[in-house]
Design goal:
Length: about 120
C-alpha cells in the first residue's frame, strides 16, 4: 500500500471561502474514485509551529492505482479549477505502508465510506 501526502502553502490573499470550496470539491471527488482506500484533506491545525497551510493524505494499493488517481480527469479538473491560482508552494511524498493501522482497506474516504 502507498501513502501519498501533499502539502500546500497558499499565496498571499487566498480567501477562506476558496479553501472551503476546494475542501468540499476534493472530498466529493475522492468519494467517487474507487482506487482510493483512504482520503482526507484539510487546513493545518497549527498545533506545532511552521508547516504548510493545507494537506491531502490518501492511500492506494499500488503505484498503478496512484497514477490512476493522479491522472484521473476528476482530480486534474479540481487541480486546474482551484489550486493553480492558490498555491505558492507544493510538496508531495509517497511512502510504502504495510496497511492502514486500525482500518480495513474497504473504501475509507474521510467520512464517506458508503460510495
Amino acid at each position: 500500500m502507498i501513502l501519498h501526502t501533499v502539502t500546500f502553502t497558499w499565496k498571499d490573499g487566498v480567501p477562506e471561502s476558496s479553501v472551503e470550496a476546494l475542501t468540499r470539491e476534493l472530498k466529493e471527488m475522492a468519494s467517487k474514485l474507487h482506487m482510493l482506500r483512504f482520503y482526507s484533506c484539510g487546513r493545518n491545525l497549527r498545533l506545532r509551529p511552521g508547516g504548510a497551510d493545507f494537506a491531502v493524505v490518501s492511500a492506494v494499493d499500488d503505484a498503478e492505482s496512484l497514477h490512476a488517481y493522479l491522472d484521473h480527469p476528476a482530480h486534474v479538473a479540481v487541480l486546474r479549477t482551484w489550486t493553480d491560482h492558490m498555491i505558492a508552494d507544493r510538496q508531495a511524498v509517497q511512502i510504502e505502508i504495510p496497511h492502514l493501522p486500525g482500518h480495513t482497506t474497504q473504501g475509507i474516504v474521510d467520512d464517506v465510506s458508503d460510495r
